[in-house]
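Page 47, continued from p. 46.
Same chain as before, 316 aa.
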Amino acid sequence: MEACHSSQQSNVTSYGAMALAIISLEVFAGMWINAFIICVLCIAWVKKKTLNSNEKILLLLGCSRISFLCFSWVNYFLSIIYPNCLYVRPIFQVLASSSTFFNYSSLWVSACLCCFYCIKIANFRNRFFIYLKVKIDRMVPWLLLGSGILALASCIVIYDITETLQSSNFTFTFQENFWEARITMDKHFFSSFFLAGFGYAASFTAVIFSAVFLLFSLWRHKCKMQTNSMKDLSMDAHIRAMKSILSFLVMYSINFVCLILSIIYSMMNENTTILISIYLCAFPGIHSLILIFSNPKLEKALLKILSYVKCKFFTK
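Result:
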């Protein structure tokens, strides 16, 4: 019986180590990709002494994603290698609340980016839409501030939940009593889980509407340009933005499903599956890479670096 238990524990340990290795590679790649975006934008900021609205959103998005990846990796590393450290106050509270803050920041800022693309590129004759197109550059700082406030509110809620949970059950064992304690806490904090799901759903809805409006604008624009054989610059802008926002819509949809599943698993007192954790850590890096190739300035800087590396190390 003991041999069977030790064998099962060994399999769990090796499985967790393999998952940690995969997540570590994803986090490392994602941090470098977002660090590249931040560096390019900061250099442009120093040269021009200013940033446009699109660059402001990308800069904040890169910072929030790097921070989210850092806290997520530390949290996962401790849960696999040193699980008892999570019982030391306030490590668990800080990791959970910080990861939630930067995750919500990343989701809401990326939703703001989709809305910005839609308002800037799409063409509608609606008065309200025209008003938004004129005022969007002034609204961007307030949208980013609102995203930060919503993320901070979620961070405070999560910190309160983890503090209450650990204060009332500070001496529980890691596997059994912890989940028994969570049953009581989940019933008490059901509204918190509902708010978390609502926050994910609201940002996801903003992305869906932005993609649909931009797709409709592109379709209508193509119908108008069918009789014109000349190449239209706005058409290229539409196509470039649509590739970016549609790819993001697919990835965001999968990410939304993973986040909702993670909430459901928490309410059912079950651990989040490793596939969900792997995708949640891969999402910030993959989407940022798509943003690089959809932005001419970032793409040009990346190709310049790659050509330099090729000439430096791969040519005789």
